[in-house]
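Could you join me in thinking about how sequence relates to backbone shape in a protein? We need material for that, and I hope you will provide a protein of your own picking. Label the sequence line and the structure token line clearly, so we can match residues to local backbone shapes. Would you write everything just below, so we can both look at the same thing?
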Amino acid sequence: MSVFGYIFLSLEKELLVAVEEQQAVVCDYAQSQGLEIEEIFIEEGVSLKRPFRERYEGGQLVERCVAGDAIITMKAAWILSSAGEGVNLLRTLRRDDVALYCVDIGENITLDEKRKLVVYEGCAEIVQKLLSALAVSEGTTHGEAIRATKRKLKKQGKYIGGPVPFGWEVNKERILVQNEAQQKIVQAIIAMREDRWSYRDISKKLNVEFDIQLSHAGVRRILDGDNKRKNEALLAAAKRE
């Protein structure tokens, strides 16, 4: 059995809780349950409304868990991004026999056999806390959260989404880097263009030599996009240094 902590750094200042505080809460709670945290996943730069399994750290965490494992987080709102998504996530964790402990609820909310939940006076309080947690998630400004996320990721030099341009790929750190195989084709395009080949002739050559179907407009977009991506990559690398 492995126990994992999940820390969420909210983009909304009013909801932001420091890493150190969340870590202390999660570790203290684990100890109170006779559990020991093996690893802590820290999520940042993502909207609270994004489904847990679609987040980078959240997705990695779900894939990492196997039957008998447990996840501990400070607040249910950190994981249950909406009522519908929350139901689906809890159903998945329950099916996979993975426990989810939310410190603000004080319960394992996925596995009944471990909670042995019955109707009693405190049940209403637990339900109210869970509904409040979902209300926090659904009450955030979705559009502003998305824009804030993109601004932060762009500032960090990370890919903010959309189709990945030809000649490039997104690595595990969500940074746009060159794809070696495709870059060989890009370099061939650049060489032909420098030799004053027309875009249409380059398109025909690619079809024969590389078995690639590209229109003359597609060739132009690759050249324009490659120059842009190289400049962006250099700028991002300079910022990281």
In short: Confidence is low (pLDDT under 50) at residues 113-124. The CA atoms of residues 191 and 211 lie 18 Å apart. DSSP finds nine helices and seven strands in the chain. Residues 216-240 form the longest helix (25 residues).
